[in-house]
Amino acid sequence: MTKLTDSQLYTKCKEYGLNAKIWMRKFAALLPEVYKRQLFRRRGFVSIHEFAAKLAGMNYSTTDKILNLAARLEDKPALKELFQSAAQGWSKIETVAYVATSETDKFWAGKVKNLPKQTLEAYVFET
Predict the structure, then answer these.
(1) Tens digit of each residue's pLDDT (9 = 90 or more) over 65-101
(2) Burial class (CB in 10 A: 0-12, 13-18, 19+), 53
(3) Helix, strand, or coil here: 88?
(4) How far apart are CA 37 and CA 97, in angstroms?
(5) N or C: less crowded end of the chain, CB within 10 Å?
(6) Please, what sign has the CA dihedral across residues 15, 16, 20, 22?
């Protein structure tokens, strides 16, 4: 590491940071199934919150938000697919989950894919 130039070190930091985001999204997508199967108990964890904290460093609030989001997406297959595939961050999907219905599910999934989060928040606010 000490032989890396500043540019090379920065490039590595960006690469690893991006990978961390991707893996965190994938972990978040697994949590609802872990909760449904109660896998955390069979692996010796007291709660889903402890499981998420110890395995991924995820805090209590984030774990709750992810589980609530998964429940909210049960009747919205397009948004649920985005969440489960980890194609988009869960917080971006959460932005539209409260206004989306089973009829407008595909519309909102398209918006999640194509709009940055701040623009999406503004769009939801105006709707």
Answers:
(1) 999 999 999 999 999 999 999 989 999 999 999 999 9
(2) middle
(3) coil
(4) 24
(5) N
(6) positive
Neighbours of 25 (CB within 10 A): 17
Q: Say how many residues make up the chain.
A: 127
Closest CA to 67 of 95, 94, 40, 42: 94
**pTM as predicted:** 0.87
Q: What is the pLDDT of residues 76-86, one digit of tens each?
A: 999 999 999 99
CA angle 48, 62, 116 (to 5 degrees): 140
Structure tokens given for 73: 């997406």
- Is pLDDT larger for residue 120 or for residue 2? 120
| C-alpha count within 13 angstroms, C-beta hemisphere, residue 62 | 17
Of 33, 14, 26, which Cα lies nearest the Cα of 88? 26
Tokens linked to 89: 């961050």
